[in-house]
Amino acid sequence: MATPIVHDQEKLGTIYIQADLSKIQITLFRYVGFGALGLIGASILAWLLGAKLQIIISQPIEQLATAMRAVSKERNYERRVKMARKDELGSLIEDFNEMLGQIQLRDQELQHKQTRLDYLAHHDTLTGLPNRLLFHDRLSHAISKAKRLNYPLALLFLDLDRFKNINDSLGHEVGDQVLRQVAKRLETLVRDSDTLARLGGDEFVIALEQTKEARDVTIVAKKILESLSEALQVGPNELYVTTSIGISLFPTDGEDVESLMKSADVAMYRAKECGRNLFQFFTMDMNERVREALFMENNLRKALDNQEMALYYQPQVEMSSGKLIGMEALIRWHHPQLGIIPPLKFIPMAEDTGLIIPIGKWVLGTACRQTQQWQEAGYPPCKVAVNISPKQFRHSDLVETVAAALKDSGLDPQFLELEITESVLMEDMEQSIATMEKLKAMGITLAIDDFGTGYSSLSCLSKFPLSKLKIDKSFVQNIAELSENNAIAEGIIALAKALHLEVIAEGIEGERQIDFLQSKGCKQGQGYYFSRPMPADAFEQFLARESAFSYRRLAAD
Ligand code: C2E
Ligand code: MG
Ligand code: MG
After folding, report:
1. Does residue 494 fall inside a structural domain?
2. CB of 450 shorter than 6 A to ligand 1
3. 169 lines ligand 1 (CB under 6 A)
């Protein structure tokens, strides 16, 4: 630095001052350097700390978030976040994994249940076979395939013969086992490409694909009948089950599931009508029969309103004297076009359609009223026996219906007898006994009709409040010198005696039967030998003769 020295405007000289700044600068540089280094160090430290912090905190959170996103996107609950830590985040991850584990478990259970539900929805639980739903599906696929490739296709509709008897008499347990065994046998007879299914009850269906000709179907049907003809071993029972088979062919008998099934069903009914244990191919005239059946059903619905029903009465007598002891009311249908239709032709239809309930009510009411009228007219009082069908017996209204019939007619209950069949005894025994006890408490009596044709267990017979056994006419009609029917009739008489029950034989047509039955101790009888069933007015004339006859007999005594 230079400064001039001036005195009285005269420059005296110049002062020069010189200093060395390099030291300061070096110091300054040193400071700046240190500062910068410190900054860099701090930055590195901060960066290192940040990275560490990220490793410690945000990375696991990020991983958790990624895992969560993946799980919710892929629904893959097997995923786990892998990280072992001992801090709070560690336990968060652990909890998260644990939660995934539980969800995975529940998911598996759910899937398992879903599979099971699917299976249940499409299979029959008893036999494990496909059910109606799955069969419908498979058949409709088979039909599309057959259409596309021009293949033939056959549908077999099976219904076991008299399976209800087994169920009723030996119980549902045995019935179930029979169905399982039948299913197993059928399974061995069908190829993998065929579908066997159980529609429910005792109905099975088989769809045979690619059957070249009807003969192939015949072979399968024959094999089925043959295979079922061998005894089934169910517990201690050796049972014989047969089946009736209806067959429909695609495309002739139907081009869709419904029509093919319907045709096979119709053919199956035809097989039953033809005597069971056989197979029938569908034919067009069967449709005619279906129409007829429908026509009859419609007619039956109107029959009561149109007053087409009538009761006939058949005498029941004491065989030694020929004295009238009772009468059985037997229904007849006077069809406007078809004439008199016997009960066996329409009672089954009435049972199937539920029409048996109003019809049965009408029978009870009419029989009670008629019997009371005859008593009021002064004819010797006798019992009226009324047939009660199984469905009617199990209908909740029965006791009330009977009570109403008695009340409305004024008939003394001791003059009413109800005839029930053996099947009623075996099905739902507790309930049957309860109903029978109620009826008995009203003062009416109960008889077992057609005894010997069902499968009632003799050991149970004494549990029911019964009064009478009616020996079925099949055992009575063929009574001959040496016949096993004699033994059955005799056995039933002995059984009735042992159980302190009355016994009556039905279907008596000749003296030989009377002699035999009386010699074995059966005192009551009913049959054409004494009289055919008669309309009410004819029966009244019979009553008039009978009372005159008994008055004569009294006078003679
Ligand atoms: P069921 O109760 O065993 O009646 C006896 C059947 O045998 C009657 O047939 C009767 O006419 C017939 N019969 C009587 N004596 C003889 C004989 O000596 N020889 C022969 N071959 N047959 C004889 P029907 O009247 O045709 O009745 C048949 C079945 O229909 C009855 O059998 C009964 O189970 C049922 N039924 C009849 N009326 C009614 C009814 O009002 N309600 C119900 N639910 N079923 C009825
Ligand atoms: Mg009867
Ligand atoms: Mg009978």
Report:
1. yes
2. yes
3. no
